[in-house]
Amino acid sequence: MVNNQNTVISINQPAYLPWLGYFDRIANSDHHIVLDHVQFEKNSMVNRNKVLSKNGEVMLTVPVKTSGNFGDLAINNLQIGGPPNWQKKHWQSIYFNYKKTAYFKKYADNLEYIYNSPWLKLNDLLKAQLSFFLNALNIKTEISYSSDYTWRGNKSELVLEICKKFYANKYISGMHGKEYLDIDSFIKQDIAVDFQDYQHPCYSQMSESFCSHLSILDLLFNHGEKSLAILRNSQ
Known about the structure:
Elements: E1 8-12, H1 20-27, E2 31-34, E3 48-53, E4 56-61, H2 86-98, H3 104-116, H4 122-137, E5 142-145, H5 156-165, E6 170-174, H6 183-188, E7 192-196, H7 216-223, H8 227-232
Parallel strand pairs: 1-2, 1-6, 2-5, 6-7
Antiparallel strand pairs: 3-4
Helix pairs in contact: 2-3, 3-4
């Protein structure tokens, strides 16, 4: 099959309450692939992120079952564990820290519904959140999940395999990709590689001094429908 269109692909692992740069890469792509079949890495941002409180940053972490299973923990199979009241605690943290923001009421009901729903697998929660955020930001990029397909390679070979599968003419990589991507192999396939060097924007928030690299929630609650323009004008 021949692809006659210019297709920009981005790939990223799923993330809990992702930061702005996560959505900038998706918004700049025609097709985004959520890399959810790979191994879960401890201390990654797959199951945690930061929100803002009156005392500064607060890390919210979804507890997951990892004991004795590292090396055999594909993200799409990872089960949520820990105390059963973690959802209530996360929602209370979000509610009490953001209830006075200009756009909290606009998104609160849909977000609270997510936190009131039962979740057994982390990936199911992250899918629901991603759908919510893309809708809130009005991002129309096509989304696929790597766990729906069978792949042979890993690292650079895997990225190239995905790009070829979805007929990419350009791949947007994170800066970390410079450490492992075999650029020559992409050139041979006529696939350009861009590295996202995201410059985080400053915006008004409920803090005396600006706090950067928080969850997208912070921007949404403070700026609503203007959020996408703010995060994309950061370049």
